[in-house]
Amino acid sequence: MGILDIRNCTKRFGGLVAVRDLNMSLAQGSLYGLIGPNGAGKTTVFNLVTGVYTPDEGDIQLDGKSIHRKKPNSIAALGMSRTFQNIRLFKSMTVLQNVKLARHTQRKQGLLDAVLRTPALSQEEREIEQDALSLLKIFNLAGRANEFASNLPYGAQRRLEIARALATHPKVLLLDEPAAGMNPQESVELMHLIRSIRDRFELTVLLVEHNMKVVMGICEKIQVIDYGETIAIGTPREIQDDPRVIEAYLGGA
Amino acid sequence: MKRAVFWVVAIFALVGLQLQLANWIGPYNYKIVILTGIYIILAVSLNLINGITGQFSIGHAGFFAVGAYTSASLVTYGESTIRGIVGFLPRLGQDAVLLVLGMIAAAIAAGIAGLAVGIPSLRLRGDYLAIVTLGFGEIIRVVILNVDAVGGARGFSSIPAMSDFFLFWVFLVVLITVSVIRNLVNSSYGRAFISIRDDEIAAEAMGVDTTRFKVLSFVISSMFAGIGGSLFGHYNAYLNPNSFTFITSFLFIIMIVVGGLGSIGGSILGAILITFVLETFRSLNEFRLVGFSILLVLVMLYRPQGLMGVWELLRLKRRTAVAKS
Amino acid sequence: MITFLQQLINGISQGSAYALIALGYTMVYGVLGLINFAHSDVYMFGAFMGYYIANSRVVQERLGGSVLAAVLVMLVSMALSAGLGMLIERFAYRPGRTKTRFTLAFWLGILGAVFGDLYSHSAVGILVGALIGIALGVVVELAGIHPVRQESRLALLIIAIGVSLFLENGGQLVFGADPKFFPEIIPSTSLNVGALNLDTQKLIVLFVALILMVLLNILVHYTKTGKAMRAVSYNLDAAKLMGINTDRIIALTFGVGSALAAAGGILVSLLYPKIDPLMGVMPGLKAFVAAVLGGIGNITGAMVGGLILGFAEVMAVGYGSSTYRDAIAFIVLVLILLFKPGGIMGKGTVEKV
C-alpha cells in the first residue's frame, strides 16, 4: 500500500468511459510518471485524484484515508497539492501573495482575530510571510516577491505555481505537464528542481508529462495508459522497450 | 498602541464635527454628509462580495431594506420598553442604546437574509447569480410592501429620529466598517476571497473551501448593508419600499464600479462622488439623471477600472494593444 | 369553467405580449451573452412612437380608424424602434467588442444637446450643444483616446443599465413624465362564442403576436440570415471564420428584437392605454424572467416562457392575491435559477466549471 492508491477506478462521461478499472499505487517518496497518448485519460486521473471528479466505481486512498468522495479543498488539506496544465496563478495577486494564500489550510487565525487585527493575527501573518519568502528563495523568486504574478515570464510562472503548491505542505505533489512550453535548457533545470524538492521536502511526486526526456530522466517508475486503461508499468528502461507502449504511441491511425 | 491613538483621535474629531459641522456648511449639506456616510457603508460592504470576492450580486438593496425595517420596527415598537430599562442614562445615552440595539438587530436580520439568499444562490456563476440576487432583492421588497405592521405602501413613519448625535454615530460606524473590511482583506480570509475571485478552481486546489467563503463574504456584506439600513431609517425618520428597488441596488453597483472594483478606497470615493453628483444636481431632475447615465456609460466604455482600478490588473491587459491597432 | 377559459384567453394574451419582448432579450443573449437591460425601454419607445404616429394628422385625417391605419402605426413604430435598437448596439455595446469610431462624439453630442436644452430651452440651443459635443468627441478621439475592450460581463451589464437609465430619463425629458393615453386604433368589441364573452382586442393582440412569432421562426430557421444568426449564437469566432459578417448579424439581431418589443409595446397599449416613460420597467423584468424560464438564448423557449408566465400571472391574480402579482415573476425566476437554470428548453443544471 503506497501513500496514494487508486483502486479499480472507473469514470464515465455519458457513454464514454474515460478511465476503466484503473489501479495505481505510489510508494512514499517516489517520483512517479503517468504518460500516454493524447486523450488517454491522464487529466481525468488527475481530476479524480484531486477531487474534481468523483469515480463511478472504485476508490482512492491518500495515506490510508479514503478521499474519492471528498471535495478538492479537503483533499488539499489532507496533503495533496497540484499544479495545472494551463498555469492557474492568481492574477491580481503578487508572487508573494500567491504563495501566502496556499498556507490557507494551515492557518490558525479565526474570524475575530482577522477582523480585530489581534496580536495573534499579526504574529501569524509575520510567520506566513517568512515561510512564503523562504520558499520563494528556494525557487529563485524572492527578488520578485512583490511583482504581480501575471507579469512574470512563462518559466518563472511555472516555478511559482510549483512553489505555491508546496506552500500547502503536501505529502503528494501532482505536476500537470510542468515542462510544457519549455526549451531544452529550462527542461533540464526543471528536472533538477523536481528532484531536489522531492528530496528536500520528502514528497511523493506524480508527474503527467509529454516531454519524454523529462519523464525518462527523472521518473523512477512510469505508468502508461491508453483509452483509460493501463498498458504498462515499469522503470523508464522497461517502458521504452515495451512493444505495447510503442504501439500505443506510434501504431494505429 | 498606534491604533488606540487613532481611535481616540478619531472619536474626538467626530465629536468636534458633530458639534460644529452644521454651523459650517448649513443644515442641508449636513444631511447630505450623513447620507454619504450611510452610502459609504453600503458601497464598501457591496465591494466585499462583488469586488473582492468576485461574486456578482445586484440585490444589495434587499439587505439594506431588511436591516432598515428590522431596526425601525425594534426602535418604534420597543422604544418605551427600552427607554424604561435604561432610564438611568441621560437622554443622549438612551438614544445611543436604542441606536446600537437597532443596528445589532439589523445586522442579525440582514445576516440571516444573506445566509438564506447566499446558500442556494452562490452555486450559480456569473450572470445567473446576478439575476438570482436581483430576483431575491425584489422579492424582499414586495414582501415588505405587504406587511402592514411596517406601513406597507404608505411607508413607515413612526420612527423616532436620533437626530442629536447622528453624524457622530454614522461616521463612527463608517470607520468601524472600513476597518473591519480592511482588516479582513489583509488576513488569510482576504486572500481566500481574492483567490476565489481570481480562480476558483485553483483556490479549491490550494485548500480554500470556496462555497463556505463565498457564503461568508456574502453574509458579512449583507450584515453591513443591514447596519447601513438601520442608520438610513433614522435619517429621514421614514421608510418607504420605493427606496429599496433594484434601481437602488444599481446605484450601489455604480458607486463601486466608478470607484474601482475591488478597491476599498475606491468604494469610498465612488460613494462620495455619486452621492455628491446626485444631490448637487437634484434640482435639475431628469436632466441630472440623463447626464448621469451618459456619464456612466462613458466611464464604463473608457475606463471600466474606475478611479482606483484594480481591474486594470485583472482583465484589461490588452487595452494598449487595442489602442494601437 | 367559463371563467377559467376566459382567464386562459387573458393569460395567453398577456403572455404573448411578454413573449414578444422576451424574444428580444433571448436573441441578444444568444448572440452576445449580454442581458440587454435597455430592451425594456425600447418597448416603451415603440409604444410612444405608435402613440405619436397614431395621433399624427396624417393618420387621423386620412386614414381614420381603418385597419390600414393600425398596420401603418405598427410597422412604422417597429421600424423606428429597430433603428433605436441598432443605434444602441452600435454605440453602447459594440465599442467594447471591436474598434469603432465616433463613439464619444455620439454620446457627447447627446450630452451637449441635453445641456443646450437645460440652459436655453430652445431648438437652437439644443443644436449648438449637440454640435459642440460632437466636435469635442471627435477631437478627443483624434487625440488617440479610444474605448476599452470589454472583457468583463459586469462592465457590459453596467453599460446596459446605464443605457436603460438614459432612455427612461431621456424619455421623461422628451415625452414628459406624465402618462398619456394611447388612442384606440382598434375598436373594442366583444364577441360571443357560446357562453364565452371574448374581447376582440385581446384576440387581435393574440393573433398579431402569433403572426409575428411565426414570421420570426421562418426568419431564424428557413433563411440564410437566420442561419447566420444561429451560427453567431453558437460560436462567435467560428462564425467569423466562416465568413459571416458578425457585426452586421448582431446589429440585425438587435433590430429584429427591438422591432418585436415595439410590436409588444403597441399591442399592450391597446389593452392598457396608459403609457408613460417608465412603463417598460416591470414588463421588461417580467419578460426577462419569461426568457430565463424558457431557457435564455432559446427562441422557442422565450415564446413558451412568455405564455406560461402570462398565464401564471393571470391565474394568480384571478384566484389568489393581486398584491403579490409582481412577486410571481420573481418567485418563478428564483425557483427556475435554483433548480433548473437552463430553463424549460435548456440543458439540465448549469455545470459548475
Characterization of the model:
The complex is a heterotrimer of chains A (253), B (325) and C (353). Chain A has a domain of 157 residues: P-loop containing nucleotide triphosphate hydrolases (Rossmann fold), CATH 3.40.50. Helix content of chain A is 39%, strand content 23%. In chain A, the strands form 2 sheets. A 6-stranded mixed β-sheet of chain A has the order 6-7-8-3-9-10, with helices on both faces. A 4-stranded antiparallel β-sheet of chain A has the order 2-1-4-5, covered by helices on one side. In chain A, strand 4 and strand 5 form a beta hairpin. In chain A, helix 3 crosses helix 5 and helix 3 runs parallel beside helix 6. The longest helix of chain A has 20 residues. By secondary structure, chain B is mostly helical. Chain B has 2 domains: 196 residues, no CATH class; 64 residues, no CATH class. Helices cover 77% and strands 0% of the residues of chain B. The C terminus of chain B is likely disordered. Chain C is mostly helical. Chain C has a single domain, classed as ABC transporter involved in vitamin B12 uptake, BtuC (Orthogonal Bundle), CATH 1.10.3470. Chain C is built from 14 helices and 4 strands. Chains in contact: A-B, B-C.
Would you count the extended β strands of chain A for me? 10
Strand content of chain A: 15-25%
- Which strand order do you get reading across the main beta sheet of chain C? 1-4
- Can you tell me the overall shape of chain A? globular
Main sheet makeup of chain A: 6 strands, mixed
CATH topology grouping of the domain at 4-79 and 170-250 in chain A: Rossmann fold
Order of helices and strands of chain C: HHHHHHHEEEHHHHEHHH
**What is the annotated CATH architecture of chain C?**
Orthogonal Bundle
SS summary, helix count of chain C: 14
Q: Give the CATH superfamily of the domain at 4-79 and 170-250 in chain A.
A: P-loop containing nucleotide triphosphate hydrolases
Helix fraction of chain A by DSSP (H/I, runs of at least 4): 25-40%
- Output the structural class of chain A: alpha/beta
Identify the overall geometry of chain C.
Answer: globular
Return the CATH class of chain C.
Mainly Alpha
* Individual helix count of chain A: 10
What is the count of β-strands of chain C?
4
Largest sheet composition of chain C = 2 strands, antiparallel
CATH architecture group name of the domain at 4-79 and 170-250 in chain A: 3-Layer(aba) Sandwich
| Structural class category of chain C | mainly alpha
